[in-house]
Please model this.
Amino acid sequence: MSTLDVEVSENGSVKNSDSIIDSHELDEYDFSRFVDRPRHLNLERQRSCDERSLNDLPVPFSPHQSSRADNFGRAFDNPDSVYSPVRKSGCNTPMSHFGNGMVASDPHPMIAEAWDDLRRALVFFRGQPVGTIAALDNSDEKLNYDQVFVRDFVPSALAFLMNGEPEVVKNFLLKTLRLQGWEKKIDRFQLGEGVMPASFKVLHDPIRNTETLMADFGESAIGRVAPVDSGFWWIILLRAYTKSTGDTSLADKPDCQNGIRLILSLCLSEGFDTFPTLLCADGCSMIDRRMGVYGYPIEIQALFFMALRCAMLLLKHDGQGKELIERIVKRLHALTYHMRNYFWLDLKQLNDIYRYKTEEYSHTAVNKFNVMPDSLPDWVMDFMPVHGGYFIGNIGPSHMDFRWFCLGNCIAILSSLATQEQSSAIMDLIESRWEELVGAMPLKVCYPAIENHEWRIVTGSDPKNTRWSYHNGGSWPVLLWLLTAACIKTGRPQIARRAIELAETRLSKDGWPEYYDGKLGRYIGKQARKHQTWSVAGYLVAKMMLEDPSHLGMIAIEEDKHLKPVLRRSSSWTA
Ligand code: GLC
Model:
């Protein structure tokens, strides 16, 4: 048996190879108890111990030091729990303090350069900053790199929030909300109302001296896929803005509440689904080309989970909000169970899959998805450390994608989709497989690359995604901020420090490329844009978070104590 196989025993406990979950306890994952929480949980001016532990945190940050009050309830409202919106770029000051009283040496010269690049990337609409351009590179064909991408703006937004400059984030959230309201059509087919754009651009009419916005919801994108991740990032960013500024008035606007409802109604509708995960097309997120990430890819599932949790914090408990919250609670309940059990892979699970029986019929089936042991790729056993594990790329009928995807695993840690044990197992894996996942430049978007016949079939012979290039095992500096956040949340900042030091050896010298190629990431990406804004912003966010770990609060959510599953550690965790 494995976490893929859940067996209900006579006494009502649900067992699998490395976990025993009491079904009664499962029912006690009572999300609903949080639903009716009053909106302002922490009205008292004095900071709670929990809040203090986040804000005054010494390095390293241990998640155990703080049990945040904001899980499954609207608690970002504590006026004293928020980051003070004073314009500051601590990283720019000559002597930076780590939260633990240690004094850092002079800030790295790359920091000032990165801030310059980030500010030059700002895009203005009618005099107001509304986002950052994807890349400031004029040497190559622009394609759509001259646009503001929703996903690319997230690290820029976090950098501005951490620096006490929330205006551009607010403008961005409001402008994209307006774009959501547009009628969206691809040929003659109309997209759902809640779809958020992949990107937008400001058009200047020099004759009439006017500015208008133009957005792409997938109708211009290569491959014509709508970005499923955009709406999730929008909700996550709205929560980061609210948490960081303490300004609840933005999220409380009827337009924003409606925007959240529209996004969620796209994913919470009932249909033919037999799983609580979200079914989607290839290329609908950061990996926006055909790469075999269709079905139930981890990136979308983790973002979906995080967006649901953020929405719980943002939605007003009025008539419409309350009803939606009840649906979210149910979905979170099922999604948590599904992901933690079926997507999780460690040495024990791998052994169980290897010995699977197939063609089992009925609800007693152990191998529920009828996965063929022969489909286990050779590399996966070599990759799996004794201590460690990760959420695999995808699960569907007779299909497990064993590839490691960085973004999905980091978001699983930040959102507490992963249990604490799973989170530290993921960090164990990153440490043990440092050469493979970090190599010369952080960080592999996925591992390993697909090649030869498999590459032809899976990518449709895509010349941009050849092995160890771009989305196919390329190394993306932007992922540094996600790794750093995950490291801080799991109390292992030294891992992030190592990765940042590596990035500092090359990033600036190489002109802040979009991605690197090669098994170790030693080539600058074949078609990588230079001065890619999210490479710049990702570095800044990583540096700022490491210097002041309290920033983590805007992008991480703690597991609620009441949600804690009774998952037993597998032997590989306890060994
Ligand atoms: C590429 C990336 C995508 C990113 C876009 C703009 O298409 O695959 O994730 O959003 O460039 O940088």
